[in-house]
Amino acid sequence: MPGAPTGTTIHAVLAPALEVTPEEAHGYLEAVRAGDALLLDATARLAVRTPLLQARVVERLAATATPAAPASELEPLLTSAVARVEAAAGGALLDRIREQGVWGFGPTLEAVQEGRIHVLAVPWRMSARVFRCSESGRVTVTPDAAERLCPGEAPREVPLADVLPDLVSRHAIKLAVMHGDNETRLTTAFDGLAGLTRW
To answer: How many alpha carbons fall within 13 Å on the CB side of residue 150?
Structure first.
């Protein structure tokens, strides 16, 4: 959805006063099994009839003046709600990381490559640079560390953003991009990188 913050997927948005058949309700349930649902207020009756859907509701939006409102009328409501939901989820994730995770740029980067990180919190504005070993692909914070980690390879300085997709894919990590106050908190209190560990 244009203008909506990235990082949150709206799996189901039900319009006010929508008549829902049992087959459609099943479809909505399938749509929200993998993620959060953002529902409009008028769908409460559906949520009550379907406990799984009720458990996935993260925000309720007030009904618009027109039951069949165009998307342009719903977008500001959704954008605002998505921002609130993302902010709350990001803050909760950073709290969990503080209790049972790893933070600090170097320690987190090391834990990522050891396969210990399940969810990696990164800032939206990413400017950090790392040193990547030419053959093994290992990544470190300093060139000296790279030479110790992979002797004989020529480490090359690259933006973290360039190697992050490969790291995330290789180690099956879920990426959590922090915005606003959570981005500031991640940068100042967690040294720019933090992760929730698998064990």
So the answer is: 17
Q: What angle do CA 8, 196, 12 make, to 5 degrees?
A: 20
pLDDT at 190: 98
| pLDDT beneath 50, residues of the chain | 1-20, 32-36, 38, 40-49
- Residue 154, C-beta contacts closer than 8 angstroms, at least 6 positions apart: 134
Which residues, 6+ apart, have CB-to-CB distance to 191 below 8 Å?
103, 104, 105
Per-domain residue ranges for the chain? 22-98, 101-197
Q: Which fold has domain 101-197?
A: 60s Ribosomal Protein L30; Chain: A; (3.30.1330)
CB atoms within 10 A of CB 71: 11
120, 103 in Cβ contact below 8 A? no
Cβ 82 vs Cβ 6: under 8 Å: no
CA 21, CA 14: separation in Å to the nearest integer?
Answer: 13
pTM here is 0.70
Cβ neighbours for 139, distance < 8 A, ≥ 6 positions apart: 109, 113, 130, 131, 132, 133, 160, 163, 167
In residues, how long is the chain? 199
Q: What is the rounded distance in angstroms from the CA atom of residue 135 to the CA atom of residue 170?
A: 15
